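Supplementary Methods S3. Complex input for the zinc ion-bound model.
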Amino acid sequence: AQELADVSTRMRSAYAMGAIDLDGASVARADLEVMMGTERDPDRLEEIWTKWREVPVSMKDDYSRMVEIANAGAQELGYADMGAMWRSRYDMDPDEFAAFTDRLWNEVKPLYDPLMCHVRAELNEAYGDEAVPLDQPIPAHLLGNMWAQQWGNIYDLVAPPTADPGYDLTELLVDADYDAMRMVETGEAFFSSLGFDPLPESFWERSLFTKPADREVVCHASALSMDGADDIRIKMCTSVNADDFETVHHELGHNYYQRAYKEQSPIYWDGANGGFHEAIGDMIALSITPEYLQQIGLLDRVPDASSDLGLLMKRALDKVAFLTFGLMVDRCRWQVFDGTLTPETYNEGWWNLRREYQGVRPPTERTADHFDPGGKYHIPNNVSYTRYFIAGILQFQFHKAACDLAGWDGPLHRCSIYGNEDVGERFNAMLEMGASQPWPEALEAFTGSSEMNGSAVVEYFAPLVEWLEEQNEGRNCGM
Ligand code: X8Z
Ligand code: ZN
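Predicted complex, serialized as structure tokens:
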């Protein structure tokens, strides 16, 4: 236990602390994450991308030791290894769960493939044949995100030419002088509109909303329930932009879930499965539509149906692109924990999966000494990741169920459940179950069906996929 604590703390600190030198200026890691979304100079992007990954090189030995100790612990508990233990948390056999995620992936892959092909073609237009060849994976530093996990920040580069929604959420927030606090208050107001009690005073006193100037903190956003009762808090270094507006809702989703299941026995103080916990706030954020933004005074004029493709593209860049990342992170770690990958092949295995699932490649040469997985928070912190893949699917199922319940009959991406207390009540019925029942029962309590599947995501993005396939006609979509 002592050694596990030592190696884990060393890795976590290495991830969270320090700054990176750019042209003699020291830039905080949280700011570098934001810059990957706003910077457009490919050389500068490559520099930030590469420097970010110099830090985790030092984590590799600690990581491999952590794997040995964690596996020993999992085996003492009767699991084949740590990966099998993670897979066992979904009310089914670990092998069955792996097959279950394969099935889901096959359902949504037909959304990803045409998106990737179109994005590559547009980046080729923007950056040229040499930087983005049309028959190779996309260089990972050009997708608007440190890990190429969500691509919404490059919307302007790949947008459908005649479907401009006429606004950019980051600009709306900045122009309206939002700060971190106002963003969180806006998230709270959404939950209140569904009938949830306001957050307690202690939430506002004890949360951390912005990056403190006088000390190092772990900036990766998280939500905590300190006492299994009302002492709920978030911790994040909020920037005023669309990504963090979404993250605020994501974190609040955790808090409202935690508070909803507090009456259960402590052994059930958890989500129906990890994917449920990650999907709650995201489902709320799917209701951040133009109509909603107008209702809360951020947007003057709601764009008409001619901008639907633009709205869908923006969402797909974040949500569809994410599915592949959400899946590959643990596909890699399952291989690490079962011994298929060894410290010598960690980095190679990581990039093989990045290529296979995401169709991305590193912009600069990588060697066996690099430890690029360590550049993602959840690896040094040993947080399982398939939960986000599950959430990526589940949030659309929740959204569709909520919109059906609200009697919505327009396209799903225009539906907002803001202000609907009936939906809130039914949602709460699922939340307050916590982990007390197998997840299919929690799913049924809210959606009326106990089956998880990709049909809602597929329905949501169907018009965009049709358009993407037209665009891709005559393009080579292979690698
Ligand atoms: O880690 C998170 C949350 C905390 S549970 C901020 N997310 C994943 C990530 O950042 O990689 C939310 C989306 C995916
Ligand atoms: Zn989360």
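The first strand starts at residue 19 and ends at 22. Residues 94-127 form the longest helix (34 residues).
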